[in-house]
Design a protein that fits this description.
- By secondary structure, the protein is an alpha+beta fold.
- It is 31% helix and 21% strand.
- It has six helices and 13 strands.
- A four-stranded antiparallel beta sheet has the order 1-2-3-4, with no helix packed on it. Strands 5-6-7-8 form a four-stranded antiparallel beta sheet, with no helix packed on it.
- Strand 1 and strand 2 form a beta hairpin.
- Helix 3 crosses helix 4 and helix 4 runs antiparallel to helix 6.
- The longest helix is centred in the C-terminal third of the chain and has 41 residues.
- The N and C termini lie far apart (87 Å).
- The N terminus is likely disordered.
């Protein structure tokens, strides 16, 4: 058989004297078929045309019924005249027998969560019954396990941690996005399987916050703090020279003295962070404990003085 749609690459011919299609794998990219000698073959299907057809792994015995496990990690193999079922895993490239005490009348079927098989067995007295059998299969209830558990190490990590980190050649998040949208064999296809990713934004916000804080601190030290003290000195000079009265006169005079290591009862209350008490300078109560430096403002005496002064100016009259 040859199927080559117009404009598509030439597909391979699959020639056999006798062929029986069995099933598609869970990814939908290959079809399993059997020849007259009960040997299995895998024919790749490339979205809209057939690719090559090759013998299935030689470790899968001939005859019987073969169908994919629901998680896509391998196949279940049932033989009519043999007890139990064979479990073939891609990662092990070997078929192992399970449930060998039981002889099934037909191929058993998986339950919806993939954790077991339901099959019809016959007892020694000829009575048939439907039974459930747990199956030893890695990640049985992960429907797309085949995207991640490509070997035993990956399967163990996924089973233990419910996820795994993979090294990639991508350094930026957008490169990963582009690889999924445009990197499907060089030609984007909606039928190409893509892995879902769980990406937390916490680390990006932490980096953003650290960068913002760093830029803020640098600009504060280089621009904001010198401008603040320039304003305080200019305002203090203005009030002392103009003879005008204002409730801000004593505030800026206190701040100017604070910067120049001056002494006064108000400065003492500011430096001691004395808690809430009456301030003759403000003619009102004020919570001096709010003036305690915190964060990066504790890094030097100059930064502590600036914090107290700025906080005092912005909170003294509400």
């Amino acid at each position: 058989m040859e199927n080559t749609p117009r404009g598509m690459p030439t597909g391979s011919s699959m020639i056999s004297a006798w062929a029986l299609p069995i099933t598609f794998d869970v990814e939908g990219k290959s079809m399993i078929w059997r020849d007259k000698n009960n040997h299995y073959y895998e024919a790749s299907y490339l979205s809209s045309y057939w690719g090559e057809s090759r013998p299935l792994d030689k470790h899968i015995s001939a005859d019987g019924v073969l169908y994919p496990a629901p998680n896509g990690l391998g196949y279940v193999h049932w033989n009519k005249n043999r007890k139990g079922v064979g479990i073939y895993l891609y990662m092990d490239k070997a078929e192992t027998r399970q449930m060998e005490r039981y002889e099934f009348n037909s191929a058993p079927k998986f339950v919806p969560d993939g954790k077991g098989l339901i099959g019809i067995t016959t007892t020694e007295n000829g009575t048939s019954s439907v039974k459930f059998f747990p199956v030893n299969l890695p990640l049985p209830d992960v429907t797309n396990a085949w995207l991640y558990a490509y070997d035993r190490e990956a399967e163990n990590l996924f089973s233990k941690n419910y996820g795994l980190f993979n090294a990639t050649q991508y350094r930026q998040l957008y490169e990963l996005y582009d690889s999924e949208n445009y990197g499907c064999n060089g030609d984007y296809s909606q039928t190409e399987s893509s892995r879902p990713y769980l990406i937390t934004t916490d680390i990006f916000w932490e980096i953003y916050g650290a960068a913002y804080e760093g830029i803020f601190i640098v600009n504060e030290r280089n621009k904001a703090i010198p401008s603040f003290w320039k304003f305080v000195e200019s305002a203090d000079k203005f009030y002392k020279g103009s003879g005008k009265s204002s409730r801000w006169m004593n505030v800026v005079a206190t701040l100017s003295a604070l910067k120049n290591n001056g002494q006064s009862d108000e400065i003492s209350r500011i430096m001691q962070e004395s808690g809430e008490m009456f301030s003759p300078t403000l003619d009102d109560t004020f919570d001096y404990s709010e003036l305690k430096p915190r964060g990066h403002y504790t890094s030097s005496k100059e930064m502590q003085t600036y914090f107290r002064a700025f906080k005092y100016l912005t909170a003294c009259y509400k």
